[in-house]
Model the fold of this input.
Amino acid sequence: MADLLPETTKSYISTPDMDELRARFDATQLGELAAHPNMKPFADDLAEQLKAKLSDGGVKLGITFADLKGVYNGEICAAMIQPIKDDDKSHAMVLLVDITGKLKPAQALLAKIEKNQVEQGAVKATLKIEGVDAVKFTFPKKKGEVEAKIAFYLINQDLLLAGDNLDVLTAIVKAQAAGKAAKPLSDFEPFVEVKKRCEQDANGLVPNIRWFAEPFGFVEVMRAQAGGRKKRGKDILKMLEGEGFEALQGGGGLINFNAGADKQYDILHREFAYAPTDPNAAAGDRFVLGARIMDFPNGPIEPPPVWVPDEVATYFSVRWDMQDAFKYVKTIVNAYADDEIFDEVMESLKEDNLGPQVDIPNDIVPFLDDEVIMISDAAVPITPNSERRLFAVEITNVAMVKAAIWKILENEPNAEPIEIKGADGNFDAWRIEEAEEELPTLTIIGPGFPTAFVAAPNPQPAQKLPNMAITIHDKWLFVSSHVGLLEKVLQNKGNLSNSADFIRVKTALTDLGLAQDSFFQFGRTDEMFRVTHEMIRTNRMPEAKSLLGEAINRIWRIGHEDEVRRQELDGSKLPPFAQVAPFLGPGGFFVNTEGNGWMMTGVTLRK
Done:
C-alpha cells in the first residue's frame, strides 16, 4: 500500500496479515497479560480514552481493529500525511484495508459506522471521488475548534478507504487507477533505504508489523492535528532543524512476535535510522553545526563494569566521541539562547575572580573517554521521583579531572561535600541540593506509544531536580540523580554480568549479530515499568519523572506544550504491579553505526 500513499506521508504502520499478527501476539507474555481477566477493565477504559484522544485530535474515523475482524483479507495500513508539503498546519490521516472477497462484510461495517456517526451528531452527505461513491460525515464544531471535523469512507478496487482529507483520498483513488501514486511513499528515498536495510537483516522473515516515520514532519503533523503549536518561546523542533538534525531523514523497522526458530523471542524488532551525509558537511564530517555531536563510533561491547549492581532496571552503554561532542554542542547552546554565549561562559569560568577559574575545554574535556554508561533503578515506595539514574563517563586523567570538578563544586552554592561509605572504604562526593530549573526537552517519538491522558489548562511547572550526587571512583566520573543510587553503586558487591537474565539477553543479541557496535542496552521491563505503572494506578501520571513517564507525557502534550495534563484514565482499574510483573520479561538491543545511519536490533524474552 506504500505505492498508493504520497511521499509526504510522515508516519506509516502496516500489517500484512492481521490474523497472523493476532495469533503471534497472543502467544507472547504481553498477549497473555492483555487477555488476562484482571486487565479487561483497564484495557477497556484505555481503548475508550484513546478513541477520545484521537477524536479530540481530529481523527473521527470510527473504526477499531475489532470492527475490522471478518472484513480484512490482507494488508491493513494507517498513515499520517502532510498533504501540503512543508506546511506545518497541514495534516491528514488515512486507513486502507484490503477487503478482497469481503465486500458484504465491508458494506455491513460501513452501515454500522454510519449509524454510529449519525448518533454522535454527524451530518451525512454523499459524493463521488473520481467517480467512486463515497460518504462524508461532518461533525458539529466543539468550543474552540476552528473548523468542523470530517470523515470520508469509500470502497474501491477491493480496498476500504477511510480518511479525514478529501484531497488525500482523491489522490489515492487516482493512484489505484494508475497502479501507483505519482510520487509514492514506496519510492521516497528514506523509506526505501530503511526498508532495504531492515529486510537485509531480516533475511526473508515476514514482519508482523512494518513502520516508518519522518521524525520532524511527524511532530509537525501531530501538532497540526492538535490545532497547532500553542507554546510560546523557543521552538525546540525548529531549533534542532536549524542545527542540522534534519539530516535524520527517516526511521522505521520491522516487528515480529513469538519469533525465532524455537519461538525464543517474545518480540524481535529491527529498526534503521537513515541519516546520510549532509551535502553541506565539511570534509571529514557527516553533519553540520550541532548535529555533528551524533558521532557514535563502533567498538567491542565490553562487559558491565564491576561497579554496576545486579539489581538495576536498565543498563545502557554508548560509545560517544565526547571531545567532539563538547566542541559541537556550542552551536546548540548558542541557538537555544539566541546569543553567542558559549565561549563567554567558558571564558568566565576560567577567568572570573569570583568563579571557579577552571578551564573546562583544557582541564576536563581532553580527558573524557568515549564510553558513557547509564544505569537506573526504582526506589520504593514509589513516588514520581522514584526512578533513579546514574551516568558514568570514563576518564583518562583522574587527578586532573577531579581537581577541576572539585573547584567548580566548591564554587557552587547549592553543592555541599559529603562522605559516602563504600564497599572498600569511604568516598568523597558532592550533593547538589534540590533546585527548580526550566529544562529544555527533546522528545523522541515513534509509533506504538499507547497513552491515555489529556491536557488541562494549567501552565507547565518548572521541573524539580532531586538531590544529585557527584564523585569520581577508579577511572569513572559518576553523576547520579539521587544520592541513594550513588551509595548503592559504591557499596556494590554484585555483578550484573553474572545475572541469569543478563546472560540470556546478551546471548540472544549475540546470536542476532552483536559484536562491534556503538550502543548496547539491557533492561528488565518489569522494573523499567514499575514507576510508570504506579503513577497510572494512583492517577498521578502527569507527575511522573521516569524516562518512560516523561516520554509518554511529552508525546501526549504535542500541540499543547504549554499545558500540563489531567489524567482521564481511571488508573484504579489497573491490576497491582505484582500481578503485572510476571508478564514482563527482560530485553535489550544493540546499535551499529553505519555510513548512512544507525541499525538497531532488539529482543524481549519470556520471563
Residues 54-59, 436-465 have pLDDT under 50 and may be disordered. The CA atoms of residues 211 and 543 lie 30 Å apart. The two ends are 36 Å apart (CA to CA). The longest helix spans residues 40-56.
